Amino acid sequence: MNRSKDIIRHIKSLVPKDKQVRIMNVCGSHEHTIAFSGMRSLMPENLEIIPGPGCPVCVCPESDIINAIELSKRDDVILVTYGDMLRVPSVKGSIRADGKNYKMISSPFEAIEIAKDNPDKRIVFFSIGFETTTAPTAAIIEMGVPENLSILSSHRLTPTIMEILVKDTELGIDGFIAPGHVSAIVGANAWNVFSEKYRIPTVVAGFEAENLLLGIAEILKQLKEGKPATGNVYAGVVKAEGNVQAQKIMDKFFEVADVNWRGIGNIPGSGLELRVEYSKKDTKKVFGLAEVKESKIPGCICGNIILGKAYPNACKLFKKVCTPRTPKGPCMVSMEGSCNIWFKAG
Amino acid sequence: MVAVSTVTPLEQDVLLNMNKIEIGHGSGGKLTRDLIENIFLKYLKSDELKPLEDAASINLDHNHKAAVTTDSYVIRPLFFPGGNIGKLSVCGTVNDLVVSGAVPKYLTVGFIIEEGFLMKDLEEIVRSISETAESAGVKIVTGDTKVVEKNKGDGIYINTTGIGEIVKPMDLKNVSAGDKVIITGTIGDHGTAVAIAREEFNIDAAVESDCAALNGMLEPLFDIAGVKWMRDPTRGGVATVLVELSEATGLGVLISEEDMPVREDVRFIQDMLGYDPLYLANEGKAIIITSAESSDRVLEMLKGHPLGKDAALIGNITADFKGLRLKTIIGGERVLDMLEEDTLPRIC
Ligand code: SF4
């Protein structure tokens, strides 16, 4: 407790008196710790901690969800995906409410088991997430997946979206808290571009409140000294070069693609699709899926929340109509979604 | 005339009488309370029912008051580390009596059993009921058995009703600013044990339910004048009980995350599942509100009992604000509310 208090005192001494400082986190688990520890209530008034794009479930395009629902209605298909994806709303409902043959998994390895147990079915693994979940999906392909399993890839890249945000002068980001788990895969060096090209301090942090406070202090120190760099206060877990083996297999099976982000639109080079050599494993090709045009959710401002342009309580539906029990937008569904976190943290 | 265009879909549901019972209506949280207020209290209005305490107080004659409580157990799975539905059905009801200031005396047990239920499982459950009742010093005095067709039940449901003699009337009206909040041990054990026992989570860990009858530990506290109110935080956990306390008294409750006893493994698992131990069910813990002067004595007596060795002072009653607030480990503050729905249904 005392150490946290010391760091907070230190943070207060580092914050400039005369200007607003905006630090963004890009990880749902970071936002969770920040909200649940009441961290914002302890920060100086001119220091803002903004939740950014930390929720892969939230940005998964409606098109992929609708395609997943439709696939699950086929008698020859079992759709498997992570729990949160089952509840994400779309104009055609959610997989859980409106799909038919689906199973929840918590690891890609379970998809293989399900494929083996159901040799007469076609298993579609709806694989979503940032680098953290891409790596295990690549790992199962590397191990060799059964013939009857294909992958509906909806993977997104963290550095690309961060670069979009950093260029947004209106947003005016002064520093990034880089995501701990993603960094473990891509390596701390992956963030060098932010300090080198944009002069934005970027510090890798873990998930304990105290560690996050340390990360914030490090960003403020760099700002004060005018020496932006890639910092790492989570060095026990995150290496400069990351998990090279994981990077290799991700690169072997996936290629960078221009993809849609829900509520935001197309972002060049921000997603991963299976390489053409692996088309036989690519659900979109195997089933000839077409892109479905996204429909707007009336009142939902998820897109702006993900981009750090609004806080959840700026949404008129927040807590009133939109709750974890009756989510209107994707940000209220996942435990990593800012609306869900803010709802629960009170 | 109602201008139909202004009716929200939610209101429309109500207007059309389309609301249905959801699993969350049994959670002990906000939905349960809505149900109680909108349906039950609309028709059931006795003075004894109104306080909505864990047990009702009824007058036998001028000198004697009895506490009566009833509870149904629909837990899944029926057997879990640290207990089973039989043990739970005795402990839960005994605890509801003792936190109401009563010495538990008699229980009734009703079974609703599904056709095809294994006789050996039933025997195991009944043996647990007998052992638990005996060690808690209560007598099972009558019972009932019904069997429903296969697939019309879920193995077995148990209802127990308990009767006790009130020796220390507990009244929320006595709670005042400056009082202390004590918990008799680690929180969230039962909820976690049951979550693990459900295979859907795929977790390997050895957390036992805290399921225990608390009368042996709590009855001696009846002699301490400063002890004002008790409640066993089952469904909805510690947070729900304290939010209710705040609403009923108009006072605020400030609890400390740092002082909250939580087992390491429970904290780890709940972090992983994304649940907050403050909202998880306990089946062998009590929250005690005591005057500041008596709090040391209460803690000392609790710690002298095997079930109370982890007892801790976790917070204060205050007039500075209303509602429940948590002081976090790093010194931040946040508001805790009732959960809308239970994260883990059918926990007891
Ligand atoms: S509160 Fe609901 S509707 Fe509003 S932005 Fe969040 S998810 Fe969308």
Helical fraction of chain B equals: 25-40%
User: What's the number of structural domains of chain B?
Assistant: 2
The number of strands of chain A is 11
In oligomeric terms, what are we looking at?
A: heterodimer
Gyration radius of chain B, in Å: 20 Å
**Gyration radius from CA atoms of chain A, angstroms:** 20 Å
What class, by secondary structure content of chain B? Answer: alpha+beta
CATH topology of the largest domain in chain B: Phosphoribosyl-aminoimidazole Synthetase, Chain A, domain 2
Main-sheet strand order of chain A equals 4-3-5-6-11-10
**Name of the CATH homologous superfamily of the largest domain in chain B:** PurM-like C-terminal domain
Strand order of the largest sheet of chain B: 9-11-8-12-10-13-14
Sheet with the most strands, sense and barrel status of chain B: 7 strands, mixed
Distance between the termini of chain A: 22 Å
Describe the structure.
The complex is a heterodimer of chains A (about 350) and B (about 350). Chain A is of the alpha/beta class and about 350 residues long. Chain A folds into 2 domains: about 1-295, Rossmann fold; about 300-345, no CATH class. Helix content of chain A is about 40%, strand content about 20%. In chain A, helix 2 links the parallel strand 1 (about 20-25) and strand 2 (about 45-50). With about 350 residues, chain B is α+β, with helices and mostly antiparallel strands. In chain B, about 30% of the residues lie in helices and about 25% in strands. Chain B contains 9 helices and 14 strands. Chain B has helices spanning about 10-15, 30-45, 85-100, 120-135, 190-195, 215-220, 235-250, 265-275, 290-305, and strands spanning about 55-60, 65-75, 80, 85, 100-115, 140-150, 155-165, 180-185, 225-230, 250-255, 285-290, 310-320, 325, 335. Chain B has a 7-stranded mixed sheet. Chain B has a 5-stranded mixed sheet with strand order 1-2-7-5-6, with helices on one face. Chain B has a two-stranded antiparallel sheet with strand order 3-4. The interface of A and B includes residues 323 and 346 of A. The site of iron/sulfur cluster has 15 residues of chain A, from helix 15. Iron/sulfur cluster (SF4) binds near residues 300, 312, 317 and 332 of chain A.
